Amino acid sequence: MNYFGDPTIWLPFVFAALMGVSILIYVILDGFDLGVGVLFPFANNDEKDKMIASIGPFWDANETWLVLAVGLLLVAFPSAHGAILTALYLPVAIMLIGLILRGVAFEFRAKAPAPHKRLWNNAFFAGSLMTSLSQGFMLGMYVMGLEWTLANVGFAILTAVFLTVGYSFIGATWIIHKTSARLQAKAVEWAKGGIWGLVLGIGAISLATPFVSTRIFDKWFSWPEALYLSPLPILSAVLVGWLWSMLRKMPYAEDRRSWQPFAGATALWVMAFGGMAYSFYPYVVPEQITIYEAASAPESLFIILIGTCIVLPTIMGYTILSYVIFRGKATELRYD
Question: Which residues contact 85 (CB under 8 A, 6 or more apart)?
Fold first, then answer.
């Protein structure tokens, strides 16, 4: 099989990779600002303002990656888009309501009079929680093959909780990086608790995934396939140990290494995503539709690829630019 000469082979693979990268970037970037929202009840009013300021320049741009990922799924793999969205219609609707609620709350809390600010703080928390739980539920259902059985729904509920805790962990590491003093110390304690929720979530998915199909089981435990996967759990365990050791010693003098917990959390998410991608490839709908079966016509994909080569660098460019411009500790977020 000519992987590089046959467009029916390499074009679907390229689009699957682009969609996967978009989802991964979204989970990391919007994951930390969703996590900041989930942590709202544990902060006082002044700390809430600082937490909002830490994500203010980035949060709406972070969601662009979700739009890109869903757009690529629609245009490159339309039959898979239909199958996934049909199976996950309810959690997708809840996620959209949550995204709308947190977006409205984010803007209104900045201008609301003091008596109403608490209402919008609660709305921002509720929107963040709804979005996180719905995404975790969708992840669980996807892993279990999108079949609505009692056992699968129970697993998806468990995954929803773990993903929400995982988001709160990466959100706490972001707060460590962007704030100082008492709030930073609080975030260290939040991260100490959140890291074990993330570990449990990754562990639960890792235990369930091989039993979704014999194909995935063989990928995980047959030789030499198991050799390809072995670096991921080893590196993940080392990362967790390093993160835990570092969090126990924080804060460091002169705010040294405050960026490292976020970098470590990001690396954990990358490895977890890599394990899932390895397990489910080449299926875009687990054990039902491969990326090659779901792909649009090569002629269509080629035209879409040209547009993607323009859009993707633009999104990547302004994302990087915003993080460079607003680097350093968070300051007061103002709209005047």
Answer: 92
Gap between the Cα atoms of 55 and 326, Å rounded: 10
Number of structural domains found in the chain:
1
C-alpha–C-alpha distance, residues 54 and 329, integer Å: 8
Give the structural domain span for 139. Answer: 7-325
Please report whether residue 250 resides in a domain.
Answer: yes
Q: What is the rounded distance in angstroms from the CA atom of residue 278 to the CA atom of residue 105?
A: 38
Is residue 195 included in any domain, yes or no?
yes
Average per-residue pLDDT for the chain: 88
Residue 333 covered by a domain: no
Q: Are 188 and 247 in contact (CB under 8 A)?
A: yes
Residue 335 in any domain: the answer is no
Got the DSSP string for 241-284? HHHHHHHHHPSPGGGTTTTHHHHHHHHHHHHHHHHHHHHHTTEE
pLDDT at residue 332 is higher than 80: no
- Say yes or no to pLDDT of 336 above 90: no
State yes or no: pLDDT of 137 exceeds 90. Answer: yes
Q: Among 267, 268, 274, 247, which residue's Cα sits nearest to residue 258?
A: 247
What percent of the chain is modeled with pLDDT above 90? 56
Average pLDDT, stretch 94-113?
89
Rounded Cα distance, 188 and 253, in Å: 15
